[in-house]
Amino acid sequence: QTISIAKAGITTVLNSRTSVLAAANPPSGRYDDLKTTQDNIDLQTTILSRFDLIFIVKDIRMYSQDKLIASHIIKVHASADAASDNIKTSKESNWLKRYLQYCRTECHPRLSDSAATLLQNNYVKIRQDMRQQANETGEAAAIPITVRQLEAIIRLSESLAKMRLSHVATEENVQEALRLFNVSTMDAAKSGINQHMNLTPEMAQAETQIKRRLGIGN
């Protein structure tokens, strides 16, 4: 993997030796469904376009879900010092590391012809849908769909094939990669309000007063 940089007159290619997992909070502290995705994420498109998958994780207040999360966190802390758990985790971790290392060194899959055609058709359709959405709302998408996203789907497809130690990425791998892309980046790009509203000064003032009295999500 490599990263291409063309900034301030400097053009170079750097080796990428790791994956990046980043997390961030919205500017208001909580995700506001009444705002656009761009207002909630508040990051430059040049940064967002470099991530393969973008997930929006909302803290929904549900009794059953909160109970499961609390139970899981308590169990993690309660068993943190258990020697048997540490030994078991260590063995499983070493096995997984060896398997991943073997996949990386021995397996280098490439897209089959049918998988490449399927991916090409879906990429063109996604671009058309995003262009239509931009024309209807009058605003550009918060997360642009460019060739970088196409390369991301290709990487996901090849990674899924590599996990099975297959030297060919099939249509099934492409479909699963597209599913992951749709439930993450595409869902994030389409979330929030879908239509542009022209507020009068009176409406804007009323909206401000309502927001002062009601919390986000109420």
TrEMBL record:
- Residues in domain MCM C-terminal AAA(+) ATPase? 1-73
Q: Which InterPro entries match?
A: MCM, MCM5, MCM_dom, MCM_lid, P-loop_NTPase
Is Iron-sulfur included in the keywords of this UniProt record? no
Q: Identify the keywords attached in UniProt to this record, alphabetized.
A: ATP-binding, Cell cycle, DNA replication, DNA-binding, Helicase, Hydrolase, Nucleotide-binding, Nucleus
Respond yes or no to whether keyword Nucleotide-binding is given for this record: yes
Q: What family name appears in the similarity comment? A: Belongs to the MCM family.
What this protein is called in its record is: DNA replication licensing factor MCM5
Set out the biological process GO terms recorded for this chain's protein.
DNA replication initiation; double-strand break repair via break-induced replication
Report the SMART domains cross-referenced here.
Answer: MCM
Q: Which residues form the signal peptide?
A: none
Q: Where in the cell is it found?
A: Nucleus
A single Gene Ontology MF term assigned here is:
single-stranded DNA helicase activity
GO cellular component assignments: MCM complex; nucleus
Outline what the protein does. Answer: Acts as component of the MCM2-7 complex (MCM complex) which is the replicative helicase essential for 'once per cell cycle' DNA replication initiation and elongation in eukaryotic cells. The active ATPase sites in the MCM2-7 ring are formed through the interaction surfaces of two neighboring subunits such that a critical structure of a conserved arginine finger motif is provided in trans relative to the ATP-binding site of the Walker A box of the adjacent subunit. The six ATPase active sites, however, are likely to contribute differentially to the complex helicase activity.
One Pfam family it belongs to: MCM
Quickly give the catalysed reaction: ATP + H2O = ADP + phosphate + H(+)
The organism's lineage is: Eukaryota, Viridiplantae, Streptophyta, Embryophyta, Tracheophyta
